[in-house]
């Protein structure tokens, strides 16, 4: 059902495009906000006006050269990120004007979406921000990483890093639901307080102030059965040194190294995987997308019974996108970082 | 059935005991060969006269301080190693004089053995050397690491390091039996030639002469599904960089680092485990001991049908034990290193 041309908006489309590969933290002049015309639609395409963009550490990894699990963003391309918006024009049978869709629009006002793997329609009336956190790839990563990859069992000790972040905060709460001892690792006393007092973690280690090794020994007296790793670096190494027999490390990301210009050393304690018969397994939430409707319903039930809180940290305006992304790395955020582009 | 005291041998027992913790390669004066009386037997004990001792890289790891999967050998204790010998006196209902047993006697002429996890009787007429290689913990490690941990499937690409060593040579041959493309990594042109021409590997990379990354790209055009790691270090790192989607790394040991006095950096490429949805898992062959009778029969059938060759590299005399152990690290051996203590 091609759109009546009268309904195709015309006018400017602000886009944040990559100008050079960042060295370290993304700098304002690594990108440029350009204004282009709203694109015309080819057959099978629809136009989405972004309302909320979701910031994930992996967005920064896509800006580095080289093959990852998705192709790197090329110079001149819009910075890829997830987002939710309204379909405002359509040349695709999959979408009608007014639909709400979740996709990878990138940092821009208007994006072309297709009926593809990365795009899904949301029911009318959906509250948008949670669709980027607990009901989005973040919630999927937390669930799959802890349950499928971490194979968590009741009574085990679970450690999660970036504990006050979007994923970590969900992981810890789900592990509590499973009857685990849950120890977070976070970067400020406020975040540690938040996950213990507000989210019910048993303890939280401040990796900037505490002696990691001593703190892990204190808070994980029976060692660590499952480690959900969002950060890599010294925290991963320290937890490997405290692994329990048959311990599992679910590698979700490595926020501590995405900004490094030289590849940092790997975890020297990896040989503990032999002594402890441990497993370290990487995963990508998107691989499990087909199971997401079912998992989302589980998460929804937990949110509704009050056992799972989700927190969003909102930045206002497309112009704040770089600052919002960097908040993940400077630790300025608590919960899911979203950018409100339009209402 | 206590032994008739007349049959208890008396006389000297040569023992190689640890004098100080080695720094790097085991030095002759890190140990001392002492001569003590043959010990008396308490209730439940039997005396084994060692005939062959088996050298494994893990023997060196037991000499380092700290908790491994077995306790460290203490200063003054005999250097722990596997071995096979004859029961020459018994105060245990589990053994009769004349029995042949496999145990962890350590580097000495006579050892006390018990009816325990580490000791098993062998059928009369057993050929001894293969019991330390293909029919011993070495064969078990090769089988379990490749089949259970590596979850190898027909048509996959398998890489194994220390390819001409006791374990690696078996792993590669078993993988060929499974219809895999098999690429070895070894330290000399002669070893590479041996595993390709004599054992049927598809290719072998000389890690001292070849550019590891380029060679892996050349010999593993479809990347690496299973990596059986005996060495750690730069080889592990390079193979992680060439991992296939869903690739598995079975961590058997890390011969390249056991002698290091400082913990070397871990594998910087571990993040490929995320991009490639890979798994790195450590294992200890002894954990699978209960399945060994069944696995040994499988290995025996393969030896008998000619598809599995085992190679032993024999050193003569207890006095050669340090040299024999070091051969594993200097790369002087091909196949299983055994020390003949007595006939």
TrEMBL record, chains A, B:
* UniProt GO MF annotations: oxidoreductase activity, acting on the CH-CH group of donors, NAD or NADP as acceptor
Q: Which PANTHER family would you find in this protein's record? A: PROSTAGLANDIN REDUCTASE (PTHR43205), PROSTAGLANDIN REDUCTASE 1 (PTHR43205:SF7)
Please report the name of this protein according to its UniProt entry: NADP-dependent oxidoreductase
Q: Which organism is it from?
A: Iamia majanohamensis
**Which keywords does this chain's UniProt record carry?**
Oxidoreductase
Q: Which SMART domains match?
A: PKS_ER
Domain Enoyl reductase (ER), which positions? 24-339
SUPFAM superfamilies recorded: GroES-like, NAD(P)-binding Rossmann-fold domains
Q: Pfam families per the record?
A: ADH_N_2, ADH_zinc_N
